[in-house]
User: What shape does this take?
Amino acid sequence: MLRITGGRVYDPANGVDGQIRDVCIADGRIAAAVGDGARTLDASGMVIFPGGVDVHTHVAGGAINFARAMTPEDHRRTVAFIRTQTQRSGLGGMAPTTFATGYLYAGMGWTTLNEAAVPILSAKHTHEELRDVPIVDKSCCVLMANNEIVLDLLENGELERAKQVVAWQIWASKAYGVKAVNPGGVAAWKWGKDAKQLSETVEGYRKLTPGTIITGLAQIIDELGLPHPLHLHCNNLGAPGNYTTTLESMKSLEGHRAHLAHLQYHAYGGDDWNTMRSETEAIADYFNAHSNLTADAGAVLFGNTVTITADGPWQHLLYKLTGRKWGNLDVENETGCGIVPYTYRPSNIVNAVQWASGLELLLMIKDPWRVSLSTDHPNGACFWRYPEILQLLMSADFRRDCMAKMSEEAKRRIRLPELDREYSLFEIAIITSAGPARALGLSNKGHLGIGADADIAVYNQDQDISRMFSHPRYVIKHGEIVIEEGEIRATPLGRSYVIKPQYESTIEEYLRPLFEDCYTMQFENYPVELERVEHAELRNCIPAE
Amino acid sequence: MLQLTLKQNPPVPLEAELISPDTLARMSLDEIRALPLQLGKHRRRLDEFFDISGAPGLELKLIGDLSRVKWLGRGMSQGRIEIVGNAGMHLGARMKGGEIEVHGNTGDWLGAEMSQGTIRVRGDAGGQVGAAYRGSVSGMKNGTIIIDGTAGLEIGMRMRRGLIVVGKRVKDFAGLQMKGGTILLRAGSEIRAGAWMVRGTIISLAPLPLLPTFATSCSHNPLFLRLLARQLADWDIALPALDDQGTYDCYSGDSSVPGKGELLIWRPRNGSTVQ
Amino acid sequence: MRNRADLVIYWGGNPAECHPRHFTKYALMPKGKHLPRGRKDRTMVLVDIRETKSVKAADIFLQIRPGRDFEVLTILRAIVKGQYVNPAMVAETGLTIEQLRDLVDRMKRARFGVMFFGMGLSMTRGKHMNSSAILTLAAELNAYTKFVAMPMRGHGNVTGADVIMRWTTGYPFGISFDRGYPRFNPGEFSTVDLLVRGDTDAALILGADPGATMPQPAIDHLARIPTIVLDPKVTHTSRLARVHITTAVTGISAPGTGYRMDEVPLPLRPALKSPYPTDEEVVRRIHELVRVKPDWLVHQPRTTQQVF
Assistant: This one.
């Protein structure tokens, strides 16, 4: 039992905006009151947030694990976590090790994360890694839009059967949501082609288009009643002029819920790299008028990172643009796709546009409930740099200081100089916690109402916003103090959220022969057994009538 | 001058990155005695392994078979270390200045990723001399490494500037992926010298096996060799650079990159030999 | 791969004898979605130093001289980019320039090419640079078509160890924990080098038989120091070890996850009961006993700048 007194509470879901009040915790949840025997934390001069929720990050699974092998030079220059009786050893940096990932997230007050890209075939691997990410609670989205069995069904207009297959595959991979990456494009990339326009037929199909895949999946997910809507990585990521594709994608989603991932990478105008500019206004205008959509920013910060995504075509382009190696060739492992070390520089106009676009979206989207903070870790920047973005959002002067270093040409391509909006702490609590929790459909997260999970971050109030959010005074996870003044006090294992949508058991008989035809694995070995997911917690679907 | 004499051979490798003029010059003898060294997984005091004499300063003399002692002079920026005996891996790694002289042999990664300074080894060196650590973009960025004896695999790997001189025949992959600087092989090398080199110069005074991705360009005595010869004279190393002694066969490559590195192989005129 | 690869190259491996299911189940024989005629729709090239049983399965066999893999791969990289190659020296590899040009043509024409490389490449002179060469070649071929390269690992769950070391430490192998955090330097911290130099004063061997495969100085050192072996069977290493703990056979009587060469995880379900404990149980029990000893890192901070 715990009582936190004297702090300013920011709990947007319950309309609490900086009032000083007590927060009581019993049995891992927020309680109305606790007895006199409860330990009391004096939070005078501090602010209290619900624990951060990351709606889109890449921290576990085959791709990030390749990135780890490819960046030993980065591991060497990061701060190392030393093994103690309570803490495992590990390394931070661009692609932190699993244990360090948990410590680093909790170390800045984040307590829940959503791993955004899990291939079904290696879902077992992702869950094994997530088990080794301590402290935080986890969920994951399974990749679907380039799954050939689903694409064939959509090609033939068999939506009902496709729904059965999707439901079965979500449960088989023990996922929480469905992610669509560059629908049709990744399948085409297996032929070295891409799918750039929504109405173009996907390579290898007669009539299937990215548009039909998006609409079909969104409808299926709504009908299944998943707590998190279709998690969409739009086509044509990162390409100049791609904002039209993004607008088309959003239009094709009318009447359905959807979450648009790393929207920054999809908001560019211009015809090529020389004329590339920000088109965030057009995106934000449409987005503001359509409440069926949520998004995360996918913001970029200048500096080193490693880009990883299932989007092969984009990665190859980046490789050609940078001339850097596809992977560290000193280390024996790689698939040859999808992972490129990258440095964002303010002197580079393309990078400057990317940096500004992420911030512009966060500032131009009016409803903070519908846009979440993300960097598409590690693609735009590492998650442990979130406090830097919060500082940029809260201070227009600081943004101007940063822009002073940019060229006049770059400033002509962006809208950021015109934007004066400054986030309040209340709004920060929305985009870092309350909003993403709601987008994920996690009703027990992102707020401090009675019965909610007692996941709480307590920060010293500080003029230096970046410092304030980098070093919480306390972090409480499920009622337990895990971080105290920068020290890791406890490293409990978090829970994994899993859903089981309804499907007819006969669908397995349909899938088995198809599977045995296409895959090199036995059908029985394909599903992840529930026992293999550590601390699994089943969440309900509410199917549409 | 401070003198450290090894009392006992460590049973497992001893990591001694703090033994460097930068750290020791500012310390009292008591502080130096208590300096932590890493023996396997344990921390130990310096005086468990070394007898200490003399006065702390920028000059340091190490005596004994230190072939199990790693990271000596790591990142040093000034002063001088003289080692009477062998030295372990990573000697002078990342050094930024100063001088190291070894009257004995050294382990791998000698002067790895160094950016300034001079290292002279009277005996043999291991592999990866002046190289980049695994995954790093570049190896030594400047400075000089002179080895009288042999050296191992991958010397000068990814080096960007600076000079490496090896007296006896080196093993495979000399100048692997090098991006600049000069490697002088006074007795040639085994296979794959200059593999995947981008820029930079490898000079060999003895014939060496070429990769098929190097093209003959010409045969002459480039002017810069006279400058190099003058520089090397300070170290009592002879470099033939005059036309009456012979010429260098020049090759360019590695075309697989494609790179613009140079390989110069000395061809003496009849009767003339290199000292 | 099964559905798309129309050019399959095996380099320095003998799948017919070492990985028999590779042909039939995985890369060569299966009919794929985009390769309806299976084997007939694929071209198979075998590169090796001698004629093995795999030659029969190949459409093209390129026999190269021992120890010339790196040279051949480097020549191929140059040809791919239309760069100069010294024709006289090509002959030293055992192949002709025409053979190599033809191979590059096929590589560029393929819709989806794949190269599998075995120990004949990665464990011969040049070692990691040979692997590096084939991976670089594959990466560069992606400027023309889709191409991947993949190692064919040896016995046991080598890939699984590599995958897990990477997520827990950031590095695949050759890791030291001496300083309380992971450090990586193959050649310095790799097992065989540590043993040959005699840099360790104890050894715990799990899922391997170094006594059968490592060079004599390494084996001598294992015999000299306290060596503990966990193995279901008596092995060369267990014979020279101070302690041999018999364990259950993973995959047959102990559960777990196996990682296939391409890192696809497979559940291992025990079919039989074993009277012996699993490797995991033994290591956990050892760990519990080590835990109660005084912590030798206790005086250190929780995070640190690294020595490397």
Remarks:
- The two ends of chain B are 36 Å apart (CA to CA).
- The longest helix of chain B spans residues 224-233.
- Chain B touches chain A through five residues (CB under 8 Å).
